[in-house]
Design the sequence.
C-alpha cells in the first residue's frame, strides 16, 4: 500500500476529500516524518506541531472545503505567518513575529491547507546558506534561496511548499532537489507580506512534486483573475545569446533533449538569437537588486552589521552608492 505522504499534492487532497484518510492522520504522519528526517535535512526553521494538528482536526470536522483541504504544507521563512517566528534567514530578525498572515498564506489557509511550519531561507534570501542539505545527495547543495521549501518537498515531508524568487530562488533549488518550481508571471501572485529584496524583481511561487500539483497550487495562489492576459497559444523559444559560450556540455545536451521532447509532443520550438545588448541585462539586474537591498535593509546594516555576512554588507554598501537616475535607467 502506498504511503499517503508519498503521493503528490492533488492525490493527497483527493484522499482527504474522499475520506480515505483524515486530515489529522495525514498531518500527524507528516509531522512524524519531519521529526524523523529533518534532524538530518534541516529544512525547517519552525514546526508548529500542536497548532497543525488542531487545525487538521478542525478541517475534519468541517469536511469539504477548498482544493487543499486538510493537506500539510510549508512556507518559506520570508513570508509572514501570524504568531510564528519569521526571521528572514538572519539572526538579526530571530525574534520577528508578524501579527498577520501574508495574503498568499491566507490564500493557502482559505483553500484548506494545514501549514505545519516555516522552511529555511538563505540569509535575506540572497546570501549565506542555511543548514539545509539536499535530500537527493547530502554532499551537494540544495540550492537557494528557497532551500528549505525545496528540500522539504523532495524529502517527502510535505507535498507543497511556498517559495520566493528574486533571481533564481525557486527554480534553482527545485532543480537541484529534483522537484518542480514555478516563478509565475509578474503580478499573478500578490507579493505582500514577503520580505522585500527588490519590488521590481521579487516573485512568489509554489514548489511541488509534479506539474499537475504546481497547476493546482498556482490556482490557489494566483489573483483572480491574474493581471494581464495569458498567451494565446503555447510557444517554446530556444534562446541563443551572449552567454551561450558559458553553458556546460551537460546543460547543452539536456537542452537538445528537451527540444526533441517538445517536437515529439507536437510543439514547435522557435529559435531566436538574443541581441548583444542582452549581455547588459545582468548588470541592470545587479543595480536593481543592490539598490533594493540597500533601501529595505540598510537599517539592519547600521544597527547590527556584525551579524551580517560580508556578502550582504557588500550588497548594501554598493547599493547605497547607486543613485535614483541609475536605478531608473536600469528599469527602462
Sequence:
Amino acid at each position: 500500500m502506498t504511503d499517503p505522504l508519498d503521493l503528490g499534492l492533488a492525490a493527497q487532497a483527493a484522499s482527504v476529500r474522499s475520506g480515505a484518510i483524515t486530515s489529522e492522520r495525514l498531518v500527524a504522519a507528516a509531522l512524524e516524518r519531519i521529526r524523523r528526517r529533518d534532524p538530518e535535512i534541516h529544512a525547517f526553521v519552525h514546526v508548529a506541531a500542536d497548532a497543525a494538528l488542531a487545525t487538521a482536526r478542525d478541517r475534519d470536522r468541517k469536511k469539504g472545503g477548498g482544493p487543499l483541504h486538510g493537506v500539510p504544507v510549508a512556507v518559506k521563512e520570508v513570508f509572514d505567518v501570524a504568531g510564528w517566528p519569521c526571521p528572514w534567514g538572519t539572526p538579526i530578525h530571530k525574534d520577528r513575529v508578524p501579527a498577520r498572515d501574508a495574503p498568499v498564506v491566507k490564500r493557502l489557509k482559505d483553500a484548506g491547507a494545514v501549514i505545519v511550519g516555516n522552511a529555511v531561507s538563505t540569509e535575506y534570501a540572497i546570501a549565506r546558506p542555511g543548514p539545509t542539505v539536499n535530500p537527493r545527495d547530502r554532499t551537494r547543495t540544495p540550492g537557494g534561496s528557497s532551500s528549505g521549501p525545496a528540500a522539504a518537498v523532495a524529502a517527502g515531508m510535505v507535498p507543497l511548499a511556498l517559495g520566493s524568487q528574486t533571481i533564481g530562488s525557486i527554480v534553482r533549488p527545485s532543480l537541484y532537489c529534483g522537484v518542480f518550481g514555478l516563478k509565475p508571471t509578474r503580478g499573478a501572485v500578490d507579493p505582500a507580506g514577503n520580505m522585500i529584496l527588490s519590488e521590481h524583481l521579487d516573485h512568489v511561487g509554489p514548489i511541488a512534486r509534479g506539474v499537475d500539483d504546481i497547476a493546482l497550487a498556482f490556482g490557489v495562489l494566483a489573483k483572480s483573475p491574474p493581471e494581464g492576459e495569458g498567451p494565446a497559444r503555447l510557444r517554446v523559444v530556444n534562446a541563443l545569446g551572449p552567454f551561450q559560450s558559458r553553458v556546460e556540455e551537460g546543460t547543452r545536451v539536456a537542452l537538445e533533449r528537451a527540444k526533441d521532447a517538445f517536437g515529439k509532443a507536437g510543439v514547435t520550438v522557435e529559435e531566436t538569437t538574443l541581441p548583444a545588448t542582452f549581455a547588459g541585462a545582468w548588470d541592470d539586474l545587479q543595480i536593481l537588486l543592490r539598490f533594493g537591498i540597500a533601501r529595505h535593509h540598510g537599517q539592519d546594516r547600521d544597527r547590527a552589521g556584525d551579524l551580517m555576512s560580508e556578502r550582504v554588507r557588500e550588497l548594501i554598501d554598493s547599493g547605497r552608492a547607486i543613485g535614483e537616475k541609475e536605478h531608473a535607467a536600469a528599469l527602462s
User: Anything to note?
Assistant: Residues 281-304 form the longest helix (24 residues). The chain has eleven helices and eight strands. The chain has a mean pLDDT of 95. Residues 79 and 194 are 5 Å apart (CA to CA).
